[in-house]
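Journal club side-thread
Mid-discussion, someone asked how the predicted structure for our own chain would compare to the paper's figures. Pasting it here so we can look after the session.
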Amino acid sequence: MIPVTTAISLDEAEIEERFIRSPGPGGQNVNKVETAVQLRFDAAASASIPAAVFHRLKGLAGQRMTKEGVIVITARRHRSQERNRADALDRLVELIRAATRTPKRRRPTKPSRAAKQRRMDAKKRRGDVKKGRGRVRDE
């Protein structure tokens, strides 16, 4: 089990890893060894992800989530397969952890009467400045 939060932990059987060739640095192994990792996690079918968290996860994941609800993360930053695996897993856990945080509700507010008055005074002053920029007439 992979711990995400105190309430959510992922089963390793739910995560599928594929190794692909990385276009980045690799030295002598660049065209021989498959060092990049493509991690797939079916969030829609996972029993450990609550519905509210899945809904927020959908928005946070963006293009990383397919229409079927599968999160696909590709890690190719490092030259070694093991470091890329750890990187992909860390990114998945961090994404789910971010989805567990409920966003703060916005309370609608209105500007005070004094704030409205200050705004109107500033507009009046600015208008007077602009009015004074007219053509100079000879009298």
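Post-session note: The first strand starts at residue 2 and ends at 3.
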